[in-house]
Each structure stands twice: as C-alpha cells, then as structure tokens.
Amino acid sequence: MLNLIKNLTAVRGISGREKAISDKLLSIVAPLCDRVWTDPMGSLIAEKKGTAPDGARRKIMLCAHMDEIGFLVTYIEDNGFIRVAPIGGINYVAAAYSKVTFGNGMKGILVPEVGTAPADIKAEKVYVDIGAKDRREAERKISIGEFCALEGSITRLCGRRIAGRPLDDRIGCAILVKIAEAIKETPVRDDVYFVFSVQEEVGLRGARTAAFGINPDLGLAFDVTLTGDCIGSKPMACSVGGGAAIKLKDNSLICDRELTEELAAVAKANDIRHQFEILVAGGTDTAAIQMSGAGVRAAALSVPTRYVHSGVEMLDLADADACVALTVAWLRG
User: Is 200 a catalytic residue?
Assistant: First the structure.
C-alpha cells in the first residue's frame, strides 16, 4: 500500500487537469479489469465482470476522486509576481510559504504579502514567486490560466502512519486498486465498476456524470474524513487508527440505512476494525452518486485523516487496509 500511495501522490492532478494521474491509474488498473474507458467528463472507469449469470448480476459502483486542490494563474504583476485563484477549498494559512509546481514543471513558492497578519492570509493576499525579475521574464515561463499545486510528498511516521499530500483522495484511489487486485484473484458475483472521478473538489462533478452513465444498483464512495482526536478538535467519533469509517451522514447526504447496516454487519462478522462517521460539514462523491438518475442506494467508507487540505495530511494505512478488507468481504458476501 505504501509504495502505491507514493506512486500516486507523485503525480499532479488538479481539478480540471487530471490527465496525468488518470494515465497513471489507467496503467495500473487496466490489467486488473475487463474493460477500461474514460467518460466525456474525464473520469476513468474500469469494469470487472461478475460470475453470476446475465440478468442476475447487480451493477456496483466503487468511486474515489483522483483530483486535488490547487491554484489557477489569473494575473502577472509588473514585478513578476504571479496572482492565483483557488481551485477547491484552500486553507491559505496552511498553504503559505510552501513550494508549488506548475503543469509545465516550473517551480515557485506561495507566499503572503509582507505584513499580512495570519488571520488575513486569504486568496487576495497571496502570490507565487517564481524568481522572475519582471513580468516579461515571468510570462516566458508561465501563462494566464496555468495550474499549479503544492508539491506532493509522503513522510513515514510512527507505525504505519504517514503524512503528506495529496492523500485526499489518492488514498481512496489506492483502496480501489487494492480491491481490484483482490477480486481479480477471486472474482465476485456482481459487476463492479471502479470509478476514478474528476472534479470532486469543485462540486462532485465527475461522479455525478459517471453514475448517470453506469446507472448502478449500489454505490460506495471512498474518501478521507475529519477526526476528533486532535488537540482542539470539535467532538467527533472518528479517530486515526480506529478502522474503516462507515459513513452515516455528512452535510450533503444521509447514507442508505440498509447498506450501512449491512457493511457494519460484515465488518463485525469478519472481525474488521471499523467505526462510524457523522461529518457535520463537508461532503463527498457519495451525494452525487445517490442523486444521479432516478436515485441510487449509496454509502461510503472513509479513512480518518488529520490536517485535511494541508501539506501534511496524516492517516494510518491500517485504516485504509480495513476499507479494502471490508469492501472485498462485502462484495463476496
């Protein structure tokens, strides 16, 4: 799992510019599935046929978003400094004084204007410095509309815990890959569609169109979630190391009750470490899947993660493994 995460986080994939990470995932999942394609929105979809007879197989959609938050170049100052707008939810205090990489490989640093108080570090108060001496030199390197993101990296911590970015949601993508590996060895009865969705960070867009095209009977999304185990955290039952988090509700949906109860029963029967997630703010692709077409029975498994949308997102790989184990046991059951 760790090597897979390192490979996936090394590739940039800002919302709307996911081709590089899509190509990487395509090379990994194509040998594991029967059919792979990219839909018009850009989401990568891989299908693994089930063993049950035609007409007896359900369509099960497993989804994780492959896009990450980042920035879009909006203006270049006369002195060569580059103004950027956010792509997704940016915590500017966490992002300040970080290295960024542009789509063309150019490096820079994201910094606030001199004298800006921490509470005032917002989009209009930051810029990217690529070291250019003036606008002319900067324009030879960077164009209006170019995308950039904080540099990705992974650091090993105690036990199986890691920190870095963008674990949101490359950890979900890694979970899908591991599930695909498992059911290639021992196929399941239903047709499984692995969806690596685009543009989740800017409105759950890719999952909505992918679900409409697939028209699944059941949908299960994989993403990170917040935790209540940090100093100063708001009360929340999820904790890093507590196992797969079975989502009950977030700000965008209430998960299908029968499906969540089924997942909990499978976890208990197979002695898979699990916990329950109620997220009071924020949402995931689960909501887009649930509301696609005439509606889909949908649920989600989350990986508890500290410091989400920062350069040091932190999680326990054992929780990701629990998500894999639970999903495989559910599919086989």
Answer: yes
